[in-house]
Design goal:
Helix content is 23%, strand content 46%. By secondary structure, it is α+β, with helices and mostly antiparallel strands. Strands 1, 2, 3, 4, 5, 6, 7, 8, 9, 10 and 11 form an eleven-stranded mixed β-sheet that branches. Strand 8 and strand 9 form a beta hairpin. Helix 1 packs antiparallel against helix 3. The longest helix is centred in the N-terminal third of the chain and has 22 residues. The radius of gyration is 24 Å and the shape is globular. It starts with a helix and ends in a 6-residue tail after the last helix.
Amino acid sequence: TKERTIVNRTLLVAALAATTALAAPAYAVTTHSSLASWQSSVSSYSEDTSYGANFANISSLTLDGGASLNFSPAVNIRTIGSGWSTWSGGYTGQVLYTDGSSSLAGTFTSAVDSFGFFSEPNPFGIHNFTLTLSDGSSVNGSFDGSAGAGFLGWTGAGITGFTISSDVDFAIGDFFVGTSAIPEPATWLTMIAGFGLVGMAMRRRSTRPAIA
């Protein structure tokens, strides 16, 4: 009947909306200048603090979370207390020094949804940093070269690379890679609306009066 056709089409459209929301949620990109803020936006993450032999120059790195990251220019591995004197928060792992360059580009071999790291200027004193992502969004921070490393990062889908720049040379280190981001509120609303349409259509179908 015509009514049954309409109900079936409504069910199909609603199911497709709910399935699309589940299969490909559009996580909006959000930048972070605080590790605590970043951690609250991911469901789980890995931390990478070791990058290779001290003082070695590298142009690529495979992170503990599995992501591969290429650098331009190449960076020099330093260990806190051996080649890089200070950092912050008691961190004693390794960092990657730009060795004179005031800008560093990082490119992932595949898009990374959630990533962050600490940065610190080489000279003592406070210097400004800017992290710019492949989608054009950016975040700023002012960090102290005397044990004052600060966090910069993002959560969200589709980021394939970034550039971090300052007015002086610097190091980055203590990498955090999120294994999955928490959906934005708009994504949850889309999913709920899709399931609601399915429920309404099914209720309408089940309460259709019987024909004598």
